[in-house]
Amino acid sequence: GALLVSERIDREELCGTLSPCSLSFEILVENPLELYSGVVEIQDINDNDPVFPSSQARLEISESVAPGVRFPLESAQDPDVGINSLQTYQLSANPHFVLDVQTRGDGSKHAELVLEKELDREEQRELHLVLTALDGGSPPRSASVQIHIDVVDANDNAPVFNHSTYKASVRENTPSGTLVARISAYDLDDGPNGEIVYSFSSHTLAKVRELFTLDSATGELKVNGQLDYEETKLYEIYLQAKDKGAVPGVAHCKVLVEVVDVNDNAPEVTVTSVYSPVPEDAAPGTVVALLSVTDLDSGDNGLLIVQVSDVNDNAPKSLQDHYDVYVPENNIAGIPILNISATDPDLGPNSRLSYALLQGDPAVSRLFSISQENGTLYLLASLDHEDQVKFSMMVQVQDGGSLPLSTNLSVSVFVTDLNDNAPVVLYPRPNSTDVVAPGTPARHMVTKVVAVDPDVGYNAWISYTLLQATDPSLFSVGLHSGEVFTARQLREDEAPHHTLVILLKDHGEPVLSSSVTVTISVDEMVKEALIDLTDVAPAHDPRKHVTFYLILAVILVSAAFFITIVSVGIFKCYKWRQSKELFNNSRSTLYRTPGPFHHIDAVRGGFTPPNFYHQVYLTTDSRQSDILCKKPFTSSPLGSRQNTMRNGEPGLYHQIVGTASRLPKPTE
Q1: How far is CA 427 from CA 329, 434, 456, 479, 649, in A?
Q2: 32 prior amide bond cis, ω within 30
Q3: Mean pLDDT of 358-377
């Protein structure tokens, strides 16, 4: 079991600068079967001296160089590692320069001369210094180089780099000639003193100079050899820019080149055979061979990948189970209104989704369609809010597995209202005339304009404006009620006929409007008849009681009308109580709920006698009819000669009374 050295070991030959230096091996032990891994670490001894590239170095330094300027020196190389490698530099004593030893990123050392005292060419034209490199062995090994410094007259502007450090990255195995970085320096001098030549600094290792080339004129740094991430991951390249003056100025910079790993190494499988050949009667579970897998690449490039086949065990999923879509009416046919998004974590066909509308409402199938591939819902026709406000549908999302899985999503499409309907006048009817008596006081309601707007909300809120009138000072119109009032008391000499043009506007955007013409007649026949009777009747004429009889007739007719109204009310109440239960069960289907301003405010009708004014108020929010009592408005003993039976619309009146019992209960 002893492990012996079979030949002389040279660590520098085996591992170069890599530390630690190790050799691995495997030992197989039988009966029982065991496999051991072993590592032999080759320890370094201080058997190599530091070596400078040359025995002499020559520098030209201008006398105008200020103290503190640094001058890189040639670095010594020591193939040993660790403490036995190059550790420090020493400089011979002199009055002008000191030595600054710095450490690179890889731990190696390099030295720089730092001017501590200004040079004077007239006093001393040249200097001779000795640079000694020492390793850390015991005893230490060393090497020396002679440094000859020529002091020359000043080239007072040295080149200056744009950056002191440049960074670049390049993929390993990049072909030669590939540009890595472009350095740039400038020199304020003219002529040769301002012309710059780029070159590698003395700090740059010889191996780096073999892998990269530098264009002396353009400063382009390019790949020149084969880069290997597994060997070196980062290169520090020291460059300098020197002008062409008699005493050239020099600037220095550093380029850090990061090597990016590529998957250029295949996994290596090592098979250690245990039994060969394998007996035919070997029991199940018998170890036949041992496998070990390695990959020199890093990161994901060095993993082993095991593929797991997919099973369709996930149904499609959406971020939400229900979608609400709001579409303005009068839309353009064929527009997309919704994109349903669903995902399936399965792979391949198991994750390929298709979308379909489930059969339901025929109107949905006629008006909507969905893209089978991407779930976009299209509207095939123009919608009308006044026709239907809401559409509901189900969308099925199904994957492409051999046994497909699906998910159902609900979609509600709401049709929003646009102001596409102008107000429609219900009353007064065309060619109808309202009558008012002379002497009627101000603020007396003569008639009422009744209109509806099929839209909802502000689109259905109607305002009334007097647009044109025979006498604009005589009548006014309620802005929101549509009621026509006398603006002042009617005089005896008023024109017998008045025509009013009333403008009806909604509050939508844009505003829609319509107009109605109202004709009002001022009738003086009754007043003239009374004047004639007063003038020609004798003092004892039996017709002097005509006024009494007329008033008595009015009272009797009014009483008869009141009894009729009460009888009709009792009869309607009786019919309402009989149908109350049926109404409660079916009211949800008998009425369409209007918008907040979708209503009929009032309908005006009347019977003789002429000295009474009758109003029947109906609203679509009522739950039963409600007939209000008569309201006299006479301003003379005979009252007004208005005859609403003659001037009104009996058909409209009876139609509204006949439907009033089915309307909801009124609000004040």
Answers
A1: 29, 12, 20, 16, 10
A2: yes
A3: 90
Q: Are 561 and 612 in contact (CB under 8 A)?
A: yes
Question: How far lies 142's CA from each of 19, 91, 98, 134, in Å?
Answer: 22, 13, 19, 5
Q: Where are the beta strands (DSSP E) in 361-441?
A: 368-370, 376-379, 390-399, 406-416, 424-427, 433-436
- Going by their DSSP bridges, the two strands 142-152 and 56-62 should be labelled as parallel
- For residues 73 and 58, what is the distance between their CA atoms, to the nearest angstrom? 10
Residue 608 CA to residue 564 CA, distance in Å, equals 13
Helix (H) or strand (E) holding 14: helix 11-15
User: How high is the pLDDT of residue 219?
Assistant: 94
Beta strands in 431-557 (DSSP E): 433-436, 445-448, 450-452, 463-469, 475-477, 483-486, 497-505, 513-522
pLDDT tens for 33-66 read 888 888 999 888 888 889 898 889 999 888 888 8
Q: What is the pLDDT of residue 196?
A: 94
CATH code of 317-416, in short, is 2.60.40.60
Q: Which of 366, 349, 365 is nearest to 357 (CA)?
A: 365
- Name the residue with higher pLDDT: 1 or 387: 387
For residue 569, which amino acid is it? Answer: G
pTM of this prediction? 0.39
Classify domain 56-152 by CATH number: 2.60.40.60
> Residue range 463-491: average pLDDT?
92
Task: Give the pLDDT of residue 106.
Answer: 76
- What is the C-alpha to C-alpha distance for residues 170 and 386, in angstroms, rounded to an integer? 69
> What confidence score (pLDDT) does residue 153 get?
65
Can you tell me the distance from the alpha carbon of 390 to that of 324, in angstroms, rounded to the nearest whole number?
A: 10
Q: Please say whether the structural domain 424-522 has been given the CATH code 2.60.40.60.
A: yes
Phi-psi region for residue 133, left (φ > 0), alpha (ψ -120 to 50) or beta? beta
Q: Which helix (H) or strand (E) holds 199?
A: strand 196-200
Pick the CATH number of 160-260 from 2.60.40.60, 2.30.30.30, 1.10.260.40, 3.90.226.10: 2.60.40.60
Instruction: Please provide the distance, in angstroms rounded to a whole number, between the alpha carbons at the two ends of the chain.
Output: 114
* Res 156 pLDDT > 80: no
Edge-to-edge strand list for the sheet holding 126-135: 56-62, 142-152, 126-135, 86-91
- Measured CA to CA, the distance from residue 390 to residue 385 in angstroms comes to 9
For the chain, the maximum distance between any two Cα atoms, rounded to a whole number of angstroms, is: 170
Strand 433-436 to 513-522 pairing: parallel
| pLDDT tens sequence across 117-140 | 998 877 888 999 999 999 888 889
- 98-115 pLDDT, tens digit each: 999 988 887 788 899 999
Residues of the chain with CATH 2.60.40.60: 56-152, 160-260, 317-416, 424-522
- The C-alpha atoms of residue 197 and residue 177 are separated, in whole angstroms, by 20
Is the model's pLDDT at 648 over the cut of 90? no
